[in-house]
Amino acid sequence: MTSLPNSKCSWKNDSLGRKCLNSFNGLKTAFFMETAIARETACAFLFTALAVYAGKGDFWLAFRVFLLSLVPMVIELINTSLELLIDSHVGTEFNEDVKRTKDMLSASVLLALVISYGAALALIAPCWK
């Protein structure tokens, strides 16, 4: 028994290339729409450059630092997506439950920043001479 594909979910069966294009489009949109993403991108490049300089070109150090600096961006993308979803479905007028939800989302971004950038600095610091 075959069922007709659900037209609302036809994007789920897209090719890997098409899914990658959608993902890059999401990154581009977030970069230009959210200043936090742009700042975190700048921090990722700054920390990576510091790792290259401190590690005297050690590729694996720079690679680990770069990967660590992507973690806050991942959490920020989730935060931004959920905030957009909340605003579009609940509205933008004040609601105490929405405020608590957004505060907790913001806290997850803060913790990701502290953990990731702290770990990156812990990797870079011993190489600094």
How does the SSE layout of this entry go?
Layout: H1 16-33, H2 35-54, H3 59-90, H4 96-124
Helix pairs in contact: 1-2, 2-3, 2-4, 3-4
Structure description:
This protein has 4 helices and no strands. The chain has 129 residues and is an all-alpha fold. It has a single domain, classed as Helix Hairpins, CATH 1.10.287.3610. The mean pLDDT is 91.
What characteristics describe this protein?
129 residues; mainly alpha; Helix Hairpins
Oligomer: single chain
Overall mean pLDDT stands at 91
Instruction: Give the biggest sheet.
Output: none
The structure class reads mainly alpha
Helix amount: over 70%
Number of extended strands = 0
The CATH architecture assignment turns out to be Orthogonal Bundle
Helix and strand run: HHHH
Short description:
By secondary structure, this protein is mainly alpha-helical. 77% of the residues lie in helices and 0% in strands.
